[in-house]
Amino acid sequence: MHPDLAKLLDAGRINQAVAGRLDQLSPGKFCLHKAWGAGKIVEWDLPSKKVTIDFEQSSGQVMDLQFAIQRTEPLEPGDFRAKKVEQLEELRALAKSDPVGLVVHLLQSHGGIMSVDALEKELSGAVIPANDFRKWWDSAKRALRDSKRVVVPSRRTEPLALRAGDMSPADALVSDFEQARDLKTMSKALEAITLDLALFKDDPSALQRLLSGINESAAKSVRINLGPALELLSARDELVAAFKGIELPPESLRLSDLLASEENRLSDALTALSSGRQRAIYEQFPAAFGDRWVDVLTSIFDKVGSRGVAEIAKLLEEKGHMKTLEAHLISALARRSLGTDALIWVCRERNDTASGIFSGEVGACILNLLETDHLSDGPRKTTRLQTLLSEDKNLLGDIVGNMDVNEARNFGRRLMECPVFSDLDRKSLMARVIKAKPETGELVSGHGAKKEQELVVSWPSLEKKKAELDDIIRNRIPQNTKDISIAREYGDLRENFEYKSAKDHQKYLNNRKTELQRDISRARGTDFKGSDATAVNIGTVVTLKREDGDIATYTVLGAWDSDPEKRELSYLSELGAALLNKKPGDTVQVRDQATEVMHSYTIQSIAAVNP
Prior knowledge:
By secondary structure, the chain is of the alpha+beta class. The strands form four sheets. A five-stranded antiparallel β-sheet has the order 4-3-2-1-5, with helices on both faces. It is about 50% helix and about 10% strand. Among the domains are: about 5-75, SH3 type barrels; about 85-165, Arc Repressor Mutant, subunit A (Orthogonal Bundle); about 320-450, no CATH class; about 455-525, Transcription elongation factor, GreA/GreB, N-terminal domain (Helix Hairpins, Orthogonal Bundle), CATH 1.10.287; about 540-610, Transcription elongation factor, GreA/GreB, C-terminal domain (Chitinase A, domain 3, Roll).
């Protein structure tokens, strides 16, 4: 105890409890203030009840002694925060020489657990230059994971935790798995164990114990979390295959059995998995589906995301089944049913694996998909496809290079009328078409060019579009800007899912805003009053008789008024466009979009919606 306090205690002027607390604020001791950070007591004046403290954020701060007792808490000299006050250069040197030791010391001073944000607040600027922190932290995270002394979360929002006791690296890996509370974390823990199997060569029983728990966890989650369950079983099988001293218990759930029983749900379950994990699962398809495995794999080709598309194509090519995939894709192109991910793959591999698939049909399919997506409500699904068409300078030339002159002109005309592109982008894309097929130049010389068409729309649909635009500008874009700012703080942007997701949403919002502004500027609102019913026009009710005798009544309305349940057609839809200007007794041929079968319709009668 400080001599000044001992005298006051002996004289009976203070009691033992007060003396003990005052001793924590004696010169040379350390304390922590909520706002000013750590500090060192420089001197005190007991008669006047004043104490002077050098804080991190406020040097030479003079405080009332009673106030200091209430507002500060004591720090041990070895506490990380105390060392920041007096031994800052040593900590800076430690950050360079031993980042793991620095983080461990920091965690020990905070009870063994703290958030990444709190860690950054302690280190950035004081111990590590603020501009260098993110680079330092990326390197430190790798070293921490290798050391096994700290549990490093995969997401920034989860805390860092100091491992209890002096665990061996092997014990630490097993502990990570046992403490995992979800299947994805379990899978990551198994992958980490597989990478360091040499640690278990003298104790394979530790791994054998893990296998029993995996079976129960996966079986319980199949119904709700099929994807993570598949991922966990695949990681388990990878571990068993790599370590010869263990084997699956007889009652274990087999990955091939799970694949076979959940065939109808596989495409949705596999989409979110990594490329490597998807590949490992696809390699189990022969065991799961027998002679059908190639057909099952091609059936989900365009439904498993961009990573899955690439891995399925590689596997089928390696196994000598590329002809089956080619036939599947050529058929899908002819039916205009190929999706975004498969189209992107075909375009990127057009000079290699997909050379036998790439044709002029690809261009028609791309425009069809872009236009359909543009007319539908909800988030855009073809943004990456549109970006590829713009950024791949040779793609359009390669597409029209496979066409004759008439096909190229038709394609160019459709490109010029496609509502997805801005005027500037449309001209830029058309220039590439003309370079490959000079005969299409007439489309932009004034002979074949058409002005952007006016859209006839109902007043309610126009107000709905205006309300969406207003919401995007006033609410959704400002909120997205905040989301990007927050997500940027979550760490390494290369592995930052929240940041990538927010940036993708930013592209969607900006594209959607541009589309809405262009569409609204072209729109002409109407109540369909007085529509001419001598022929099919916008705002007429049409009774049709199909070739099989079925009678159906459709209402042809504005560009944004489609409602299949009410049999209301946009005049821009395939059936709506085919009916326009036709009269009673006329017959039209229309393709069923679901089955691709052509149907014949004869017009029975026409009436005005709003006479």
